[in-house]
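Hi P.,

Sorry for the delay on this. The queue was packed all week, but I finally got your sequence through. Input first:
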Amino acid sequence: MHFVTGGAFNGKAKWVRKFYSLDDHDSFLWLSAYQSDIDENFLFISQQHLLVVEGVEQWIKSIAREESDSDAIRTRWRHTISRFREWEASKSGRTVILIGTDITKGIVPMDPFDRLWRDVTGWAYQDTVVVSDRVDLIFYGLANRLK
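Then the structure:
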C-alpha cells in the first residue's frame, strides 16, 4: 500500500500519475471521493493491478456522517485498510495507492462535526501509515518520502 498526502492543490494526483507512469498504462482503476461516494464492495472486485483512491478525507467524512462515534469510524476505516491489504496479497503485483489531503493544518474547527471529521481523519491517516509500505508527502509538486 502506498499513502500519498499533502495540502490541497499541492499536486498529489499529478505526482501519482507521473510516479506510476499512469499515462502509459491501462491496468489501473482511479476512483475519486471528490466525484462521488466510494462503494467499498466495488473496490475489492477490481481486476486491475493498481487501485488509486483519491480524496480519502472525503471518504472518511462520509463514514463520519453514518457513524457518530469516533471509535466506530476508526474501526470501520481499519477494516477497510485491512481489506486493501488482502486485495493486494490476493494477486502478485497489486498495489493500492491512497491519496488523502491534509485537512485544517492543526486548526481546531468550531463546528462539532468538522472537529470530529478532523480528528478521525488524523487517526485514520496514522492507521494507514502504519500498514503502508510507502508514504510520500507532496508539497507544491515535490515529494518527500517519509516511509
